C-alpha cells in the first residue's frame, strides 16, 4: 500500500527516522488537535511514575502530551484506495474502497504517527525494551496497523481491531518506528494501548492509556474528546488492567495476577491444612496403639 524506509519484523521493529529526546522536554497541558506533523506514542516517567504519553514533534520545540487531552485528526488528505492484491486481504476491506491511511512514510498533509522508547529515563531503566499491547478499539470501523519493508515485501501485521484478543509486540530500547495505520470508516476511534517493561532493577511496570482519533474531515473533534472507553469490549482480563489508571497514567498494577496469586495461596494453605490434619491423625493413632500395648487390658496373652 505504501513504501517504507527500513525493513522490520513484527515483534522487533527496526528503528527508522533518527531522533533523540532531551530529558527536560516539558509536558504540555490543555486540549490540542494534531492533524499534521510528527507524533509518537511512548513510555515516559512522570513524577517517578511510568506512563504512556504522546510525543508531539509538530512544533519546533517538541513536548509530551496526555492522550486524554489530545485528539489525532486524520484528514481526508489521508484517503487511499485499497489495492487489488491478495497480500492486503488481512485488512478485511474490499479492493478499491477508499480508506484513511496514516502512512509509514510521511505525508506532510497527514498526522504521522509512530512510537518510540527514547525518553532518557526510560532508556536508563528498562531491560532491553518494552511491549506495546493493543487492548481494544472502539469505533465505527476497523483499525489495522502494519509494517512493510518496501513495495515488494509482504505486509507484517502488528494490530488488528477485528481480533478479539490483546495483541502485543516488542519494541527495543532506543527505538523510533513508524507504521501504516488503516481506518476503514470515518468517525471517532478510541484505541486503548498498554505499555509494559521489565526494569533493570527487576521491577515490572505497566500503564494503560487511550488514544483518541477523529477520522475524516467531517468528524467532530469535540465528540472525540467526549468519547468514553467501553471496557466491556476489551479482551477478557484486560479491561480491569487500566480501568482506574487511564486518567493519571499511573503504573498498571491491577492486572488479574493478584487474583491468581490469592487463589494459589488459598490452595497452598488448604493443602497444608489437610496435611497437618492427616499427620496429627496418624500421630494420635500411634499414641493410642502404644498406650493399649502397655496397659493391662492391652497386654498380650
What does this structure look like?
The protein is of the alpha+beta class. Helix content is 17%, strand content 33%. It contains three helices and 16 strands. A six-stranded mixed sheet has the order 1-5-16-15-9-12. A five-stranded mixed sheet has the order 4-3-2-8-13, with no helix packed on it. It starts with 31 loop residues before the first strand and ends in a 7-residue tail after the last helix.
Lay out the secondary structure.
Blueprint: E1 32-34, E2 37-46, E3 49-56, E4 63-65, E5 70-74, E6 79-81, E7 98-102, E8 111-116, H1 120-125, E9 129-138, E10 143-147, E11 156-160, E12 167-172, E13 176-178, E14 180-183, E15 187-198, E16 204-215, H2 221-226, H3 257-294
Parallel strand pairs: 1-5, 2-8, 5-16
Antiparallel strand pairs: 2-3, 3-4, 6-7, 7-14, 8-13, 9-12, 9-15, 10-11, 10-14, 15-16
The low-confidence parts are 2-16, 236-301
Helical content stands at 10-25%
Radius of gyration over C-alpha positions, nearest whole angstrom = 27 Å
Structural class by SSE content: alpha+beta
**SSE string, helices as H and strands as E:** EEEEEEEEHEEEEEEEEHH
Q: Helix count, per DSSP?
A: 3
Percent range for β-strand residues:
25-35%
Number of strands: 16
Global outline: globular
Largest sheet: 6 strands, mixed
The N- to C-terminal Cα distance equals: 99 Å
Strand order of the largest sheet: 1-5-16-15-9-12
Q: pLDDT average, as an integer? A: 79
Amino acid at each position: 500500500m505504501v513504501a517504507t524506509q527500513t525493513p522490520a519484523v513484527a515483534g522487533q521493529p527496526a528503528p527508522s527516522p533518527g531522533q533523540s529526546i532531551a530529558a527536560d522536554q516539558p509536558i504540555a497541558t490543555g486540549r490540542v488537535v494534531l492533524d499534521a506533523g510528527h507524533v509518537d506514542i511512548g513510555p515516559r516517567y512522570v513524577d517517578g511514575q511510568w506512563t504512556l504519553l504522546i510525543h508531539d514533534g509538530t512544533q519546533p520545540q517538541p513536548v509530551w502530551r496526555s492522550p486524554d487531552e489530545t485528539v489525532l485528526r486524520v484528514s481526508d488528505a489521508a484517503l487511499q484506495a485499497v489495492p487489488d492484491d491478495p497480500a492486503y486481504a488481512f485488512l478485511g476491506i474490499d479492493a478499491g474502497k477508499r480508506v484513511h491511511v496514516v502512512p509509514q512514510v510521511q505525508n506532510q498533509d497527514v498526522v504521522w504517527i509512530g512510537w518510540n522508547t527514547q525518553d532518557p529515563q526510560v532508556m536508563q531503566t528498562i531491560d532491553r525494551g518494552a511491549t506495546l499491547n493493543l487492548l481494544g478499539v472502539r469505533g465505527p470501523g476497523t483499525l489495522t496497523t502494519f509494517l512493510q519493508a518496501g513495495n515488494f515485501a509482504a505486509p507484517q501485521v502488528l494490530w488488528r481491531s477485528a481480533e478479539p484478543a490483546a495483541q502485543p509486540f516488542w519494541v527495543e530500547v532506543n527505538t523510533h518506528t513508524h507504521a501504516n495505520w488503516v481506518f476503514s470508516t470515518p468517525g471517532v476511534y478510541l484505541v486503548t494501548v498498554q505499555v509494559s517493561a521489565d526494569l533493570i532493577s527487576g521491577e515490572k511496570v505497566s500503564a494503560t492509556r487511550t488514544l483518541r482519533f477523529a477520522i475524516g474531515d467531517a468528524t467532530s473533534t469535540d465528540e472525540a474528546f467526549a468519547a468514553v472507553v467501553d471496557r466491556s469490549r476489551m479482551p477478557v482480563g484486560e479491561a480491569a488492567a487500566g480501568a482506574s489508571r487511564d486518567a493519571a497514567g499511573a503504573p498498571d498494577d491491577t492486572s488479574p495476577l493478584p487474583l491468581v496469586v490469592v487463589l494459589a495461596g488459598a490452595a497452598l494453605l488448604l493443602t497444608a491444612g489437610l496435611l497437618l490434619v492427616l499427620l496429627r491423625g496418624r500421630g494420635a493413632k500411634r499414641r493410642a496403639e502404644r498406650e493399649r500395648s502397655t496397659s493391662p487390658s492391652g497386654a498380650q496373652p
